[in-house]
Queue: 3 jobs
Job 1
Amino acid sequence: MNLTHVQEGTEHIVKAIVTDDEEMDAFLFSLGCYAGEPITVVRRVKGGCVVSIKDGRYNIDNHLAEAIEVE
């Protein structure tokens, strides 16, 4: 399942980044979003969501959220 389907406030572990776009993959990696890392959807906003990764909070759009597969 990807981040667009998880419940707000629950922590999940990133299983994989599913994209052929190397730039998107590098961007998510720079945020600390890669396999094995915990991620939490803090809040849903129009067109995306606010996520907590490591010690930061980031606003990502639905396109990025769909690429993040979680357990």
Job 2
Amino acid sequence: MATLSQDRPQTGMSTAEQAARQELAACYRVFDHLGWSESIYNHITLKVPGEEGAFLINPFGLHFSEVTASSLVKIDIDGNKLSESPHGVNRAGFVQHSMFHRHLSDAHCIAHTHTTAGMAVASLEGGLRPINFYAAGFAGQVAYHDFEGVTVRDEEGPRLVASLGQRRQMLLRNHGILVMGRTVAETFLRHWLLQRACEVQLATLSMGQPIEVPAEVIAVHQRDLHMAQAPGGPGAADFAAMVRRIDRIDPSWRD
């Protein structure tokens, strides 16, 4: 986990919620810094520690670069606000994220983006192919969900969960990237890796016929990846480094 401030929580707010708010706000700023924002759309959500069915989501109308700890909206899995906020919530984000938070106990943080590379690969027949270092790590681990239009209908929720299955990253066909993890850092890392895999695939296919990594090499690669992981758990060091970077640029996310 990134080092966050020990500011006193707002009145009526637990220390755990304040820490969660700051971590999620930092994540929004990191995503924007890396070019993963899409006007005022897309979403990253995080369960509120110790509050069953409660999660934080970005206020509809604010750019990722404007999100702060205090502006995040706390809602339940039925869409009810659980704290005072002048902001609304994008229904497309609520329908998608609430379904996963409701049914997946390990989906503590969920991110959905419309990056150019992510949308391009999601729109490509065959999807992500094992043609680069990052994609080889995801071989056999990416789910797919067919495009049904903007995700504002509750009826699509069960199909999203069914499409995901036991995987924790999914390419929404013709739509974009969806990843989730047990922590904000793990979710960030999964998105970073999948985004890089898509970017490199996009560049490779623009030049000619790619070389696919053989199945036996993929097995060895996936077996040994943990040996290259930094201490602290999946994504912890990566995310902390990015938080330090945005903190030097603009620390207002902490507010």
Job 3
Amino acid sequence: MKHEFVARHLPIAAFASAEADLVGDERLARFERLLEETHGLGAETLVSYAAQGAMQTDAAGVDEPWMHLKAEAVLPLTCQRCLGPVDVPVSFERDFRFVATEALAEVEDEESEEDVLVLSKSFNLLELIEDELLMTLPAAPKHDTCPQAVKLQVADPGFEDAPEEKPNPFAVLEQLKKAPK
């Protein structure tokens, strides 16, 4: 009997034991924090993902649940040069190992190349995908070449500069000294 796995409530141990695959697309609107980064644009943009479960034997001979996960999307962000919209491809591909407790995950995550997470009977895979995509966002998204010339002036054309010659402060003091008392 083939088990149907759901990304929002993934039983990690069963998923890994079955060496199952889970492939899907979700609308960006389902990823609240990612949608905030796009300022509400692109709610219908698809986030594609693929997860594969596996059991691997550790050094002590104990089987541990693993998951290989990758995801990608093209997000409409704001260009930091021209402040216009720019489509930025983001993606990741990573392995995750699952352990029994949070304390064990903290200790082993420091020593491991792979990410170590806590085993859960109802793991939300979409939250993990969102976390990982958020970490891949560029600090300053920008076009390779902006579609419009970038305005590099500080002042508007109607702005009048201050007079070129400033009065000498000592001359002003001299005028004050000469003023009638």
